[in-house]
Structure formats: C-alpha cells, structure tokens
Amino acid sequence: MRLGLAGTGRIGTAHAETLKGFEEVESVVVADVDTARAASAAAKLGVESVPLEDLFAAGLDGLVVTAATDAHPGLIIAAVDAGIPVFCEKPVAADIPGTLAVIDRIGASDVPVQIGFQRRFDAGYAAARAAVASGELGWLHTLRATTFDPAPPPAEYVAHSGGLFRDCGVHDFDIIRWVSGREVEEVYAIGANRGEQFFADAGDVDTAAATLTLDDGTLATVSLTRYNGAGYDVRLDVLGSVSGVMVGLDDRAPLRSVEPGVAPLPGPAYPGFMERFRPAYTTELKAFLDVVAGRAPSPCGAADALAAFYIAEACEVSRRERRPVKLEEVRR
Question: E strand or H helix at 131, and its extent?
Fold first, then answer.
C-alpha cells in the first residue's frame, strides 16, 4: 500500500511516522506547500517527498490530509475525483457552507472519506459507548465532558481557529453523539475571557461552558478552557439510572483530591493532546488502512463532521446572543 500525506506540521509528521510503521504500508510520500519543510520531514522519517502539485500523480492508494484547514476542501475533492480514499483531520472546511459544499461535491461518489475524530478510537471512549449500548448504565440522565488545554495557542492561531467551540469543543460534541447514540436538539452556551487580550480581539473566548439537550431529554454539559495550568485534562462522565462510567480518569489525570487520606495521582499530567491520544491516533490510522483496502466503510464520514459542526455553530450563536438555540436554527 502506497500512501500520501499532505501537510508536514506536527500532527502530519507524527502521522507519517505512524503510517510507515505499519507492515501493510510499503511506502509513504509526503508533500506540503512549504517544500523545504516537506523535504526536511521526509529526510528525518526516511520517506519520499514531492511538491504538493505532484502528489496526486504519485501512484497513491490513499491520502492523509493534515494540511491547514483552508486546504482541506480542495484536497478532499481532488482525492475523491482521483478515486483515492482520503483521511482528513477535522474539520472538513472552515465553516458550515464550506462543509456543505464539499459534501454536495462528493456526495455522488463511492470513494470513501474518513474525518479525523480520534476520540472515537480511544479505548476509554469506546468502552463507554459499549456500556451505553449494552444497557448496563440504564437510561442516561447526564453526560459531563471536559477539554482543558494547559496553555493557550498562539494569537495568530486563535485569530483563524473559528473559535473555542468550533476548534476545541467540536471533539466533545462529536463524542457525545457517538457515545450516547443520540442527537443534540438544543444548546445554551456562555463564555468568558480571563486571560490574554488576543482572544477577545479575535471575537473568541478562552473559557466556555455549554448545556446540550439531547433528543431523548438527556442533558450534557461541556466545559472548555485554554488555561488549565495543571495539565491537559480531557474527560467524559456518562451517568445513568443504574450505573455510571468515567473516561479519562487515569494515573496522569491532572487532578488532586483534597479529601483526607486520599493519595495523589502519580502523574505526570499529559502535556497535550498528542501524548494523551497517541494510541487512539494509531488505531484511527489502522482503521483508515481497512478503508483504503476496502475491508470496511469509513467509520467517521463528512456527515458526522457536519453534525458536530452544527452543534458548535449553535453554541457560538448562543454565546453571542445569550439565549438557547435549537439546532434547527443553524442547519442548512
């Protein structure tokens, strides 16, 4: 199997290294708008590099897209037009109209597209989903999701990120849908700025919370921040009428009990998402090999990305207008 990779930044380089380690992958060829960066990454990894404009002529069996968001639509469409199965890190596009345009463009094709929501491939989240599906938790009454980054990204990233809900919370929105098996009907969201001014300058917030009402009446809360100095903290509580489970409470969770006699977790805390989800990223890419080989359909398609994006959009409208927002208001 010969795979291409477009975008040799941090996550792209990590994915290329993972791909070349799979026995089924015979070769990896990388490309980037910055040809020098692609060549440097290729040299370090021991793989090929080509100019981005030549990537689709490189005899690919599949393509992994880790380029900047504004390049995602064009690369997805080009891959589908070329008959090449494509894996693309989220999002499909920078906004809902762009996402819908891609879906409309590729809708008639049978070339598979997989979108990167790696939490679906994390062992803890998969176990929580199985517990819900088995009925062992009873009926769900509450889900509590958190994504707490230890430090903010650069100002230039924030200015083009789409905002905390679209850039960060979208992972929680996707995993709530996936674990619960339900759809979100209404949201109410708020945000705050306690940190750097560049968040407010970009029309964004550095901390946010949202309450989601699912289509069966289950309530979910999502808490987000860019300033969790204790470390990277991503968890999900799934609570039912019979029992409950928690994802993310392991030895490296950045939590400290102040109850007498409770020993601290050994740590150290995860420094970021790459370290916390490294096994999930590997499993996700293994799943993509099955998609490329025709052994399995895409486990997370563009329509799933759109569904999570709708929730993020509704949260952003709710935050700005300080009111509950039904998902039907943002669906197009």
Answer: helix 123-134
Phi, psi of 104 (to 5 degrees): -65, -40
Angle at 214 between CA 210 and CA 217, to 5 degrees: 115
In words, the CATH class of domain 120-272+308-329 is alpha beta
User: Tens digits of per-residue pLDDT, 118-169?
Assistant: 999 999 999 999 999 999 999 999 999 999 999 999 999 999 999 999 999 9
Query: Which positions ≥6 away from 146 have C-beta within 8 Å?
Result: 172, 222, 223, 224, 233, 234, 235, 236, 248
Read off the pLDDT of residues 135-149 as tens digits, 9 standing for 90 and up. Answer: 999 999 999 999 999
Cis bond upstream, residue 260 (ω within 30): no
The helix (run of H) or strand (run of E) holding residue 146 is strand 140-148
Q: Where do the CATH 3.30.360.10 domains begin and end in the chain?
A: 120-272+308-329
Q: Burial code of 61-80, b = ≥16 C-beta within 10 A, e = fewer? A: bbbbbbbebebbbebbbbbb
Q: With respect to CATH, is domain 2-111 assigned 3.40.50.720?
A: yes
Whether the pTM exceeds 0.90: the reply is yes
